[in-house]
Structures are given as structure tokens and as C-alpha cells.
Design brief:
By secondary structure, the protein is mainly α. It is built from 25 helices and three strands. The protein has a three-stranded mixed beta sheet with strand order 1-3-2, with helices on one face.
């Protein structure tokens, strides 16, 4: 009732606000009101107009709020239905009601998903977006894009047929086991039910795969050891718990069956990979222009096409190289002494970067140094009035779990909006498994300056900070269905924000290394588009990454591996960053002297993880 009363009051006040000033009688100087017949008619006529305007305004506001309420109610019903149908997605956002149920990835399940998509597209399609407020209208657009994207992935992209690595039970087990949403015995009993379906899960995976890529097949084989490790850890935890002897015995039995299923899947994939290598007809990992443009539109939701973003990246690359050339000239004597300066711009920049890169931590100090820097970054952001930080939100630096390794060396694993109080993990892959040569190459890439930029990107004020804000957003939809380009773009923007505030003492070394790192984001877009659309070879890709973008051989090799295992995602860094920078400049122009950087940051982050073009619409 209170909400309804507030809505009615708001409508009434708005009606008063919109009432023409001439509708109010002005007191006469002599204190007498006019009794003229014509004036009475005029007043009556104006009163009628005002009354009609008031009624229309109240009706319009009521209608608008009714449309918003319809959207809010329907989106709430949608989320409830979605979590029921897709317990894995529910777990990832902190909803554990259906955590005991493991979805079986078979044809029947996919048909069920398609029916669900069509049902909800129909329901959302009946709403009138034109009568909604900005928040609800943009929520509707995001949900519609999500459903249309899901349909496209199932019917057109069909990754379930050619990517064996997408079949992995470890992630949800890890979430349930290590998130304290309930007592440990309750979580273990949930997992006891869940793992019973693991053999059926991997049987369905085998039945779903048709002509996979060799790259994704080999990744799935490599990650199987990590899945087995998670299962073993789960069994150890269960055996050391207060579960009953019968439950512990059941754990032994079901873990053994689950292990057998994982091992059988890996062995089958090994046979498939050998056959693909022999007959040479494996599916290409390159997805081609048509699929690429479609995937870019759904995943990135930028204001331009993939090809236009590629062209934008080429232009940004040239500007960066010009700046790096100038910085290299400034640093030449300091770093290279009397060494002759080469005429070739790329060679000159590369020599200065190579010299500076020898300044790095020891392999054993890599993870500890990351832990040490996090509090310093938080203090800088707060003291320089860049953002309001929440000291109560925990960030835990940990070694990347084995089942997640093989794609990226550092990542953030954040809780969903339903459980924002849970720990956020900063996953870092240690160097202890590398040869001395590999470790040196990695450390030269993540040298004294770039390791700081990495932590800015992944932690503060990058991913960690943005996701904390996202979980506070009043729009649950925008928090849950996060846009990758906004999320990655903010992390890249955070790097720029810090250096602009004076972080690193404005040293040319820091700016040169930042530019090298920023060039990496730009090059990601060029690389991804060139490989998947233009057919760039491995040799050409490695030259682009090492000689032209100054990355180490180790880093370039890992990036080549990544571009084979993913598509479009690598464009998210530059796509999001460039649109955020454009938006900031637009807001500066619009607000002039009233523009406050901290206000811009906090308003931008208040909309959850919505696409930048949606945030732009809301901010304007």
C-alpha cells in the first residue's frame, strides 16, 4: 500500500508541476476579483483544460508505472523459472535451491531450453516498452537479447557439438563445496545427490559431440585431471565430516563412478583426437565472418559492427605506437646508454621495453607480490577520490584451481548478486610448474610495472571493484546478465584511470609499460578478428604479438592458444574500453565545470554490468 500511495502522490505532484502558470488566479491589486462574464468563461475554459491535463498526466503516470510493474513482475517470474530450469546458472549467481540437480546435456534438455526461450520471448514480446521507464525498458532489452542469444547459440552456433571442453562438472562442485550458503553437512548432502548423475552427464556429452575441433578436444583432455582432483578433494572432505557412515560409504561409491566417467570421457576424447589427426578432417576452430559478426552482436552489444571495431583498433594501435615512440626517445639514454638508436620505430621501442623488462620479481615471489599490492591499490583509489571502496567485501588471492587452468593466467571469480557477501577469488596461476626459461619469459612479461597494471585490471579498481558495485545495483537483471565488454572494458579503463591520477609517479617507464599493456588490449581485437575472419596464420599471429606488440614468446604462445579456444571474447577489452572513454568525454562536454570524475565512475558502475551503450542511454 505504501508504494501505491507514493505512486499516487508522485502523480499528483507531477500534475501540479505541469499545471500552466496562467491557470492560477492572480490577486487584483485592489483585492477584488473580476466578475466579467468573459473572464469567467476564460477561467472556466482554462480550468477545464487544466483538469483534462491533470487527468491525462495522472493517467499517463499510472499507465507508465503499471507498465513498469508488469515488467518487474514478469522479470521476477522469468528468473524463478530460469533458475529452476538451469541450476548451474543459478549456482553461478548464488542461488542454491536446485543445487542438488545436475543438468544432463542431452538432446531432450536442449529442446526443453528452446521451448523455454520461445515461451519467454513471447511473454516479453507482449509488453509495451514504450511506456516503461528507462530502467525497466533497458532490462527488457537485455533479457530479450539474452534469450535471442541463447537461441542462436543452440540453433546456429551449436558449440555443444564441437567443443568437448564445455562439458565439465567441476565448477559447480567447487562453488557448492566452498561457498558457505549452508552448513557443511547440508552442502555435502547436496553434492552427494548431484554427483550421482555424473556418469549420465558424461554419457550425454559423448552423444552430443559431432566432429569437434582438435584444440577444444585437447583442452578437455588436459582439464580432466583437474576435474578428478576436485572429485578427490570432495571425497576427502566428506570422509572427514560428520556425515553418517552410510553416507560416507555412498560417497566412496559415487565418487568412484564419477571418476570412472571422467576418465572414460578423457580416454574417448583421446581416441577421437588421434582419429582426427589421422584423417585430417577435424572442424576448424576459426568460426568465419558470418558467425563472427553475429556472435559479436550478441556478446559485445557494441554500437558498431565487429569489422568497424577492428578498424577502430587499427587506428588506436597507430596512436599508441606514436606515443610509445616518443617515450622510448625520452628513455633511450637512461636505458640504452651509448647504444646507437635504430631508425626502425618498432625495433627502437622493443629494445627499450626489453631492457626494462629485466626488472621483475623472483618466480617464488610472484603470487606473494600480488597479495602485497592489493591493499596499496585500495588505499590509492580511496585517497585519490576515484571511487568509494567497501572494505568489508573480501578479496582472496589464491592459486588458480587445476580444473580452470589452460586458458588465462589470472582471473577474478566473484559471487553472484544473490550472495554478495561471499568471497571473491583472484585466481593466479603460479610459475612453479614452469621451466626456468618459461618462468623468466612470464616474469619479463609481468615485470615490475606490468604486474601492478595486472592487479589494477583484475582487482582494484578493475574487475573486483566493478563486480562489487554490480552486486549493489538496483537492477538485478543488469547485475546477473553481465556484458563482457563492459566488464573487461571497465578493467582496461581502470588502468588508465589510475595512471591519470598519478599512480606510478607519472614515470615514463610506467607510461611506456602501460602503453605496451594497453596495446595488448588493442592487439587482442586485431588478432581475434584477423584469425577468425581473415585466416591469419600462427606465424603471422606470433609476429603480430611479439615483434609488433612487444610481447614475450611465452605470452604470445599462450595468446595463440587462447584465440584458438575462444572467439569474440578477446575483442571485449578494447570494445568496452573505447566506448567508456568516448562516453566519459561526452559527459565532460555535456557537464562542463560540473563534471566530477568520481561521480562519473560511481554513476557508471551503478547500472550493474549493462552494455556501455545501455549505460550511455541511462546516463544521458
Amino acid at each position: 500500500m505504501l508504494i501505491k500511495n507514493k505512486v499516487a502522490l508522485a502523480a499528483l505532484m507531477l500534475a501540479f508541476t505541469l499545471t500552466p502558470a496562467s491557470a492560477a488566479k492572480k490577486p487584483q491589486k485592489n483585492g477584488k476579483a473580476s466578475t466579467s462574464s468573459s473572464k469567467k468563461k476564460t477561467v472556466a475554459k482554462k480550468a477545464a483544460v487544466v483538469s483534462a491535463a491533470t487527468a491525462a498526466t495522472v493517467a499517463a503516470v499510472a499507465s507508465e508505472n503499471s507498465s513498469d510493474r508488469s515488467m518487474n513482475n514478469l522479470s521476477g517470474q522469468f528468473l524463478t523459472a530460469l533458475w529452476r530450469m538451469d541450476p548451474e546458472s543459478a549456482i553461478s549467481v548464488g542461488k542454491y535451491d536446485g543445487a542438488a540437480n545436475l543438468s544432463i546435456p542431452d538432446a531432450a534438455s536442449r529442446q526443453k531450453q528452446l521451448a523455454f526461450i520461445e515461451e519467454w520471448l513471447g511473454k516479453f514480446g507482449k509488453l509495451n516498452a514504450g511506456k516503461m521507464s528507462d530502467k525497466q525498458r533497458t532490462d527488457l532489452a537485455l533479457l530479450t537479447n539474452k534469450l535471442q542469444s541463447d537461441r542462436w547459440y543452440l540453433t546456429t552456433f551449436r558449440e555443444f557439438e564441437w567443443n568437448p571442453a564445455q562439458y565439465n562438472v567441476a565448477g559447480s562442485i567447487d562453488f557448492i563445496l566452498n561457498t558457505e550458503y549452508a552448513s557443511q553437512p547440508q552442502r555435502l548432502r547436496t553434492l552427494l545427490k548431484r554427483i550421482a548423475s555424473v556418469p549420465q552427464y558424461y554419457a550425454a556429452a559423448r552423444a552430443s559431440i559431432v566432429n569437434p575441433t582438435r584444440e577444444h578436444t585437447q583442452l578437455a583432455i588436459a582439464q580432466s585431471a583437474g576435474v578428478l582432483s576436485v572429485l578427490d578433494d570432495l571425497n576427502k572432505t566428506a570422509q572427514a565430516s560428520i556425515l553418517t557412515p552410510l553416507e560416507k560409504q555412498l560417497y566412496h561409491t559415487r565418487i568412484a563412478a564419477a571418476r570412472s566417467a571422467v576418465q572414460g570421457y578423457a580416454a574417448w576424447l583421446t581416441e577421437q583426437d588421434a582419429a582426427l589427426a589421422q584423417n585430417g578432417n577435424a572442424r576448424s576452430f576459426r568460426i568465419g565472418k558470418d558467425l563472427y559478426e553475429q556472435k559479436f552482436a550478441y556478446d559485445i552489444q557494441a554500437s558498431v559492427s565487429a569489422e568497424q571495431m577492428y578498424q577502430k583498433a587499427l587506428a588506436a594501435r597507430e596512436k599508441l605506437l606514436e606515443h610509445m615512440d616518443s617515450l622510448s626517445d625520452e628513455l633511450w639514454v637512461k636505458t640504452m646508454g651509448a647504444t646507437a638508436k635504430p631508425a626502425d620505430r618498432t625495433a627502437k621501442i622493443g629494445m627499450v621495453i626489453d631492457k626494462l623488462s629485466s626488472n621483475h620479481v623472483a618466480p617464488a615471489d610472484f603470487v606473494p607480490e600480488i597479495r602485497r599490492q592489493i591493499p596499496e591499490l585500495q588505499e590509492w583509489v580511496t585517497s585519490h577520490n576515484l571511487l568509494t571502496m567497501d572494505p568489508k567485501k573480501p578479496l582472496v588471492v589464491r592459486e588458480t584451481p587445476a580444473y580452470q587452468r589452460g586458458v588465462a593466467g589470472a582471473s577474478i571469480e566473484a559471487p553472484g548478486p544473490y550472495r554478495p557477501q561471499d568471497r571473491t577469488y583472484y585466481n593466479v596461476t603460479p610459475l612453479d610448474g614452469e621451466t626456468a626459461e618459461q618462468a623468466e619469459s612470464s616474469l619479463r612479461e609481468y615485470n615490475h610495472w606490468i604486474l601492478q597494471i595486472l592487479n589494477i585490471h583484475e582487482a582494484i579498481p578493475g574487475h573486483y571493484t566493478q563486480l562489487v558495485y554490480a552486486n549493489k545495483s538496483p537492477s538485478l537483471v543488469k547485475s546477473i546478465f553481465g556484458n563482457g565488454a563492459m566488464i573487461e572494458g571497465w578493467a582496461v579503463y581502470g588502468e588508465r584511470m589510475m595512471l591519470e591520477s598519478g599512480y606510478g609517479n607519472n614515470a615514463p617507464e610506467m607510461w611506456l609499460m602501460y602503453s605496451k599493456w594497453n596495446l595488448r588490449s588493442v592487439t587482442n581485437t586485431i588478432l581475434d578478428y584477423s584469425v577468425h575472419v581473415q585466416g591469419m596464420t600462427q606465424e603471422q599471429a606470433l609476429d603480430l604479438l611479439t615483434r609488433q606488440a612487444f610481447q614475450t614468446k611465452r605470452e604470445a604462445t599462450e595468446k595463440w592458444r587462447r584465440v584458438q579456444l575462444s572467439s569474440v571474447q578477446l575483442t571485449s577489452y578494447f570494445s568496452g574500453y573505447s566506448e567508456i572513454m568516448d562516453l566519459r568525454e561526452q559527459r565532460k562536454q555535456a557537464l562542463g565545470s560540473k563534471f566530477v570524475l568520481k561521480d562519473f565512475h560511481e554513476q557508471f558502475l551503478s547500472y550493474g554490468s549493462a552494455p556501455v551503450k545501455v549505460i550511455k542511454e541511462l546516463m544521458n
